[in-house]
Amino acid sequence: MELQITPVDNTSLSLCVIGDFDAQTIKEAQVCIDKLLTDDSHEHITIDLEHVDFLDTSGIGTIVYFYKRLYERNRSLSICNAHGQPLKMMELLRIGQAIPLNAVATQV
């Protein structure tokens, strides 16, 4: 898995996940997420799942952890470009009730 962080503007950034988002890759993601949590310069973060074909409950847990920590800091999170198995998993778990799912991606 690879993570690409791209600032969109002064208040938001995009976190693009490339590859499977599962139990084997969440440690790498957790380091990145913890770093983003301590950087309060971006009010909104969009997780781009366009290049993710597999998402397991560990990946879901990491996204929910990120959402909760951002919410505690009056920041927000959305998910864009989810498709296939990751989208079905998030719909089944009703992730979209808390986190905007397949929000329109901000142009970079």
TrEMBL record:
InterPro entries: STAS_dom, STAS_dom_sf. PANTHER family: ANTI-SIGMA FACTOR ANTAGONIST TM_1081-RELATED, ANTI-SIGMA FACTOR ANTAGONIST TM_1081-RELATED-RELATED. CDD domains: STAS_anti-anti-sigma_factors. It comes from the Bacteria. Residues 17-108 form the STAS domain. This is STAS domain-containing protein. Coiled coil: none annotated. It comes from Vibrio ulleungensis.
